[in-house]
Amino acid sequence: MLEVITHKTFSQDPNARILAEYLRRNFPGGTYLSAYEAGFCGFSVHRALLNVGINNIVVNQAGIPVTDKEKRQKEDKRDSRKIARGLRNSELVAIHVPSVETEELRFFLKDRISLTKDLTRMKNRIKSYLNLFGIEAPSQFKETSRHFSMRNINWLRDIQLATHQGNLAIGCNNQSEVNAGCLDVGLESISSDNIYNFYPNPATNKISIETKSKLQGIITIRIFNMNGALLQQEKFQSQNRIEMDVSSMAKGIYLVKIQTEKEIESKKLVVQ
To answer: What is the edge-to-edge ordering of all strands in the sheet holding 252-259?
Structure first.
């Protein structure tokens, strides 16, 4: 839409570069303005348009002037002309666009909140299953502060129902790795001391885990993503230095759980 005429309404692939090439080919030397409603695509489209020389703004849907007819007839072509008209008449007010760093931090915090809610739902589901099957927790786990402690989790994992399907449903059997992983991600370290030396962190190919003294028995190391899904698990027998290959893991933040027969410790791992 130009200052005095409307060129045409058309559809194209959602690509800022293709749009910029079209505008420069048909309107060389012009000043290009665009706007779109804030929605599912976030601000990535806004940044892409700015990068190709199109002055874009992101607007709140409620701030776009509409006629009564436009309220009743909703379609893409009509909506695009409505936004173009508002942009031409300087009737649109741009909303704030956060920096990429701020946006990533925001979604990191949202993921943490979502994970916390998922953990709460899963724990309540397990308690509900226990009540459903008439399984009473031992007296030492009656206190709320002891719910889902390491001893409590080991007790849950040892529960055996009549069928394999029942064990999977209750999420306590060791074969139910996803539920067990989500439980582990939500727990603080049971060990009071950091007995493990964990390096390098950030890592790229391998991580090494060392202890001051040789640990006896089986050492289980699990790596989870921040949604609680188990990505990697290895078991070692009586070692004080362990290496694990993380070269196949995507860049991001992970949680490493180091578990022995007596304790469990959590470590945050960054893969670059």
So the answer is: 230-237, 218-224, 252-259, 264-271
